[in-house]
Amino acid sequence: MNVEYINPFLSSLVNVLSTMANTKIVPGQPRVKKDEVAQGDVSGLIGMVGPTMKGSFSVSFDESLAIEIMFRMLGEKPAGINADVTDMVGEITNMVTGGAKRILGEKGYEFSMATPIVVSGKNHTITHKCDGPTILMPFNSDFGKVHIEVSFDK
Amino acid sequence: MNVEYINPFLSSLVNVLSTMANTKIVPGQPRVKKDEVAQGDVSGLIGMVGPTMKGSFSVSFDESLAIEIMFRMLGEKPAGINADVTDMVGEITNMVTGGAKRILGEKGYEFSMATPIVVSGKNHTITHKCDGPTILMPFNSDFGKVHIEVSFDK
């Protein structure tokens, strides 16, 4: 696994948030996650299984950003993370992974997606338990932070 | 998806904790998860993809129980959830899903497992975003609670 795998997820997230929610996010520096702890308030996770690779993807939002995206996509502004927000985060997770899957498939990296899982809880952390390294990509926006993590077994 | 899918995960978890950590857990009533919120402090999650089905599994521990299992398996008793505990939870997630996969495979339900993901954070909640219902199975023990959730698309 190397940093090139992260780019399809990166561009897919930027694209989904821009087209679906008119929200601009600014990529930071991608890096191999070592002892670093990256926190989020609501995260979408998905497993990926291919003939020669398997792995996992996560996208973690600050609550403030998730709620702003909710407002921009659906016109609702809930007081906190509720079932509508977790539905939206699950949908974003599916769309981002689906977009990355298409790009990686064209490069010969084929995989199928499991169904997404959404975690909510203030300042939770995620660890991808993969043989390969986890690549972390942080983003900033006017409404809070979001980061993605990708890990493949090879 | 019906309750029969949960049984292989149930027996696999009971078996793994009993043989690996000499820890007895007592199953409660399995049920379809609706508006209910089930919290955990450390959870292992895994995606599953088969030719005709896909889904996700999670197992969520109270911190006290996770640390007791750690102590019984490895002789260490950390003050809180650290990298060793998340490693152990990832490993338990793999073993439980692997055990259930064998049993379900014999019944004709084939799937491949993605790599596990571990979430830590006090009182987080998990939502499986699947077309099918989520089955929730709670357990009690002398050291705290654990519950599993399973969801398949069909």
TrEMBL record, chains A, B:
Residues annotated as domain Chemotaxis phosphatase CheX-like: 42-140
Pfam families, per the entry: CheX
Matches recorded under CDD domains: CheX
GO biological process: chemotaxis
Superkingdom of origin organism: Bacteria
InterPro entries according to UniProt: CheC-like_sf, CheX-like, CheX-like_dom
Keyword annotations of the record: Chemotaxis
Xref: PANTHER family: CHEY-P PHOSPHATASE CHEX
The protein's name: CheC-like protein
Organism: Alishewanella jeotgali KCTC 22429
